[in-house]
Amino acid sequence: MSIDIEGISKTFGGFTALDNVSLKVPSGELVALLGPSGSGKTSLLRIIAGLEAPDSGRILFDGEEATKRQVQERQVGFVFQHYALFRHMTVFDNIAFGLTVKPKKIRPGKQEIRDKVNKLLHLIQLENLADRYPAQLSGGQRQRVALARALAVEPQVLLLDEPFGALDAKVRLELRRWLRRLHDEIHVTSVFVTHDQEEALEVADRIVVMNNGRIEQQGTPSEVYDHPATPFVYDFLGNVNLFQGRVHEGTAQMGGLNLSSPENASAHDAPAVGYVRSHDIAIERQAGDPGAIKAEVRYLLSVGPLVRVDLLLPDGNRTIEVDLTREEAERLQLTIGEQVFARPRKMRVFVDDYQI
Amino acid sequence: MQAGKLTQRSEGKGAITEPAWVRYLLITAALAFLALFLLMPLAAVFVQALDKGWEAYLEALKEPDTISAIRLTLITAAVCVPLNLFFGIVASWAIAKFSFRGKSFLITLIDLPFSVSPVVSGLIYVLIFGLQGWLGPWLQAHDIKIIFAVPGIVLATVFVTFPFIARELIPLMESQGREEEEAALTLGASGLQTFFRVTFPNIKWGILYGVILCNARAMGEFGAVSVVSGHVRGSTNTIPLQVEILYNEYNYAAAFAVASLLALLALVTLAIKTVSEWKLQQSISVAGKER
Amino acid sequence: MARSGGKNNVLPGFTPALGYTIFYLSLIVLIPLSALFFKTATLSWDGFVAAVTAPRVLASYRVTFGASLAAAVINAFFGVLVAWVLVRYRFTGKKLIDALVDLPFALPTAVAGITLASIYSQNGWLGRYLEPHGIKVAFTPLGIAVAMVFIGLPFVVRTVQPVLEELDQEIEEAASCLGANRWQTFRRVLLPTMLPAILTGFALAFARAVGEYGSIIFIAGNMPMVSEITPLLIITKLEQYDYAGATAIATVMLVVSFLMLLCINLLQKWSRRFAE
């Protein structure tokens, strides 16, 4: 089922959670709503589910108006951040709940319910724990029960609120890969909320980056990561270095760098900020290129597969971060205090109307 | 499910405690105080009740006036507890699961009967329904008796037991949040299904706790009931009022025999209260673990 | 992100639930209580003042408030002791004692009244030892205080107990690492932490004692000017069909209750000021 979100706005007291948000989720896709806390992503998810009513705007399911539909009628599966498992029911009863509250006429028979729950238990690999209570499960197990419970009613849409937020790093990694595989199997239209860019990049078909109640950018993970549309997206996804400078008719001057910036052709001597990812900077010993700046190696740190280099710029008080691969680092054999040249391979310049 | 750990403190753990003689001194002092003010009165009730032997004890309980007092007390509790139970559940649903302006003021108003003297609680109903009260003349014209009759006793008891169940359930339901109910709704449950299958199992021990306290007070209320009852033997006397009459007639053994019924009720109440408290803590700490 | 308001909440039943709550509250509590004020308003100011400041009435205030204060002080001291012992030490019968602390809540006041009266009377279990030494408890203001100690006993224990339970052992460990001895730790660290709870319990016990009737009248002797409590005076006036007088005194009591309630609410707010 496809979801159309048209011009949704929502305020809580004086706080604008959502400001005229429109979004299309095609059928069968797995979409991530990515943003910092307070960006409105959870509110949007709850409005899609019908747990919250929008102040204005419409929600369409498969082109049909659903804004006024009750939660119960929407047939959404919702996985809550803290799972919201019924603590007085066993795992089995939790998963069966949605089936047992159906009106008598369409309620499946006992055996049918049992078969279905067992199938789901198999799917989440918890067959042995059917008689346990939620309190007796680990975080990751609860998460999977919550998912199975949501799937039991065969929802048209699966909505997940920070599904991995409360788990520790290793379990989180395992579960999100499992979720991706699961989605490839069952293909139910899914939307999940996260503030973790890595999670969004890894799991989603499409990422919707939100900030201050608006959508900043949407696209495939690589589109969003490689071509951020706004300074915010640049800043939010990945490590980024900032260069202050000015831009004039398509040429940017950034702390000793001269770059062409065709997308700012209409700017007239405007203050601007250049954004460079830390892995998009090359370190060289020779000043061979005019697009390089002199800098001093301040600090070297191995972070897993990468080596992080802190460079002090000539003005003496600003540093930039550079991520080198191990190989590069070994080739360069940098030492602290050494003078090198840093050359941004890729910089995006935004006229300065945005402050971090 | 390791529950109830909250109360089990690690006494003796670590070097930081008092010297043994201080500990024994404090324990002895505390126990002496409790023995003097709690255990002795409790024991006295039963000893005095059986002062003249089992025969006399049972005889006192079989007295028709006593039987009718027991009946009236049961009727009163049977009306009060369900009324306040229903109110308590409805009020705590509105207060704990929703937020609105003036909520804490509303909670204060619900607690009000606790801070009013029992005598004043009875008096206000006399001022409304009594002969000189607002509705007095009208009631007399229609030959309806409220004050110095059963309805007055029930009303005054409803007033004094009003907050018991609500104030027990409000914090409990607040601590449980709304997520489980929301989950039930997304799974297609109706409002009533959500309440009976999700909310109710989570608050049942809280309900029992509130009901048992409400019942104890309803059966034992003296001050408020004494103002509105009129003390008509065999018709508007509850058990506590019957105790007073017997005592004032210097019929001590009978007075204590009847009083021992109420003391037994108190002990049963404490027992059930302790169990439900324990269960309650269990469910809260399980909920806490789940967060 | 506070999600609030009835309209923002999908759970059903808010309007009927709140409606019924307010309806029932008004019917059972608010309207009857307001009757008291309306009735008082029909008195002239001079009449009201005369009724609430008559010598016998003033004497009853002295007895009631004096004994309540004394009882609350005793309960504050022993309440802290009992709570401390129950939380910190292990001894046989602790669970039972813990459960029994609530007895005064569960035991009907009339039962408490006749029992205390019989224990402290001339031939009673304690009275027979006390009276030869010139200590008369039953039928004196002292007896009133004893009854008030009984009914107020659980309040301080039950407000201090959870505070002590939640107290982090690390705080005491920190204090002793900094060189404080046990008594200094108690005085300077533990007592200030417990103080709001102690005061709240004190206020609750005091408020309960001021309004108490059933457990007192049997042991008080009820002599006008000496051992007559204010609630009893209200009943006496009612029995004499002096509705105006009864109402006036009841209004004073009710205003005192409201003030106590306000006090207790402020205390509870204050006690949460360090809460995270």
UniProtKB/TrEMBL annotation, chain A:
Taxonomically, which superkingdom?
Answer: Bacteria
Q: Which residues belong to any copy of the ABC transporter domain?
A: 3-237
Task: Spell out the SMART domains in the cross-references.
Answer: AAA (SM00382)
Q: Please give the InterPro entries that the UniProt record associates with this protein.
A: AAA+_ATPase, ABC_SmlMolc_Importer, ABC_transporter-like_ATP-bd, ABC_transporter-like_CS, CysA_C, Mo/tungstate-bd_C_term_dom, P-loop_NTPase, Sulph_transpt1
* GO terms, molecular function: ATP binding
Report if keyword Nucleotide-binding is assigned: yes
**Keyword hit for Transcription:** no
Q: Which UniProt keywords apply?
A: ATP-binding, Cell membrane, Membrane, Nucleotide-binding, Sulfate transport, Translocase, Transport
Put simply, this protein is called Sulfate ABC transporter ATP-binding protein
Please name the source species: Geomonas propionica
TrEMBL record, chain B:
Membrane topology, as annotated: Multi-pass membrane protein
* UniProt subcellular location: Cell membrane
Q: Does the keyword Transmembrane helix apply?
A: yes
Family annotation (Pfam families): BPD_transp_1
List the InterPro entries hit by this protein, alphabetically.
Answer: CysW_permease, MetI-like, MetI-like_sf, Sulph_transpt2
PROSITE patterns attached to this UniProt entry: ABC_TM1 (PS50928)
Residues annotated as domain ABC transmembrane type-1: 70-273
Origin: domain of life:
Bacteria
Q: Where are the transmembrane segments?
A: 21-49, 69-93, 105-134, 146-166, 252-272
Keywords per UniProt: Membrane, Sulfate transport, Transmembrane, Transmembrane helix, Transport
Subunit info?
Answer: The complex is composed of two ATP-binding proteins (CysA), two transmembrane proteins (CysT and CysW) and a solute-binding protein (CysP).
Report the protein's function. Part of the ABC transporter complex CysAWTP (TC 3.A.1.6.1) involved in sulfate/thiosulfate import. Probably responsible for the translocation of the substrate across the membrane.
The protein depicted here goes by the name Sulfate ABC transporter permease subunit CysW
Organism placement in taxonomy = Bacteria, Pseudomonadati, Thermodesulfobacteriota, Desulfuromonadia, Geobacterales
UniProtKB/TrEMBL annotation, chain C:
Q: Which UniProt keywords apply?
A: Membrane, Sulfate transport, Transmembrane, Transmembrane helix, Transport
Q: Where are the transmembrane segments?
A: 21-45, 65-87, 99-119, 139-157, 189-210, 216-236, 243-267
Quote the CDD domains the UniProt record gives: TM_PBP2
- Native source species: Geomonas propionica
Explain the purpose of this protein: Part of the ABC transporter complex CysAWTP (TC 3.A.1.6.1) involved in sulfate/thiosulfate import. Probably responsible for the translocation of the substrate across the membrane. Part of the ABC transporter complex (TC 3.A.1.6.1) involved in sulfate/thiosulfate import.
Q: How does it sit in the membrane?
A: Multi-pass membrane protein
- Domain of life of the source: Bacteria
Q: What is this protein called?
A: Sulfate transport system permease protein CysT
Q: Which PANTHER family does the record cross-reference, listed alphabetically? A: SULFATE TRANSPORT SYSTEM PERMEASE PROTEIN (PTHR30406), SULFATE TRANSPORT SYSTEM PERMEASE PROTEIN CYST (PTHR30406:SF8)
